[in-house]
Amino acid sequence: MSGAFDPKNDLWRTVSAMTDVCGLSFLWAAACLPVVTVGPATAALYFAVVRHVRRREDGAFKAFFHSFRVNLKQGALATLAILPPAFLLQLGWRLCRTAAASAAYGYAVLAGYSLLMLLPLGALMFLFPLLGRFSFSLKDLFATASRLALAHLPTALALAAVNGAAAFLCLRLVLPLFFLPALAALASSLLLERVFRRYAPELEEEEQERDLGI
């Protein structure tokens, strides 16, 4: 009977993981409210999910606040740099979509414009996870995210699909906001960590050491 209350059994580990998922999702949503903090909040969410939720280790909330504090300035600057071009790109896409119904080659223009948006969208999928896992100058952060998006475009598109679906559901419904952000970060990490380990072998060593309990 005492085993049922053992914090290391499967039941309590599952409850702990669900608590972390819901808590981190709430913290991310709250931290994003000033808008300019979306970047550091996303970096912190990714860091906490990779380092704690995936390994079912304690301290996920502490890790979130630590990463958020460390990356606040860099992440806020990156967010401010993204907002104007993101607004213009989105406005251009809306105009192309409106014109598509009336112009002779409107849908071809819309398709071409959508293809051109793949690179900045793909780079965005890498940007804040990179910030959460590594240290970069602002210039190198954007350059590295763009290079990875080009080199791993299928991965970038898969990430865009996962996070786009999560964002759509969170914007349309309230309930998913309390668990979906962390689950989307978890799903994204399954793709991103494979890419990161190719360029940073120390991540593989770090994971092996954790598995061995070193």
| N-C termini distance | 32 Å
What's the rounded overall pLDDT mean? 85
Q: Look at the helices and sheets and give the structural class.
A: mainly alpha
Count of discrete alpha- or pi-helical segments spanning 4 or more residues: 10
Tell me what you see in this structure:
80% of the residues lie in helices and 0% in strands. The chain has 214 residues and is mainly alpha-helical. The protein has one domain. α2 crosses α4 (72-100), α6 (118-133) crosses α7 and α9 crosses α10. The longest helix has 29 residues, at 72-100. The protein is globular.
Key words describing this protein structure:
214 residues, 80% helix, mainly alpha
How are the SSEs placed, and which strands pair?
Blueprint: H1 10-31, H2 38-53, H3 60-70, H4 72-100, H5 106-116, H6 118-133, H7 138-151, H8 153-172, H9 180-199, H10 201-212
Task: Give a brief rundown of this model.
The chain contains ten helices and no strands.
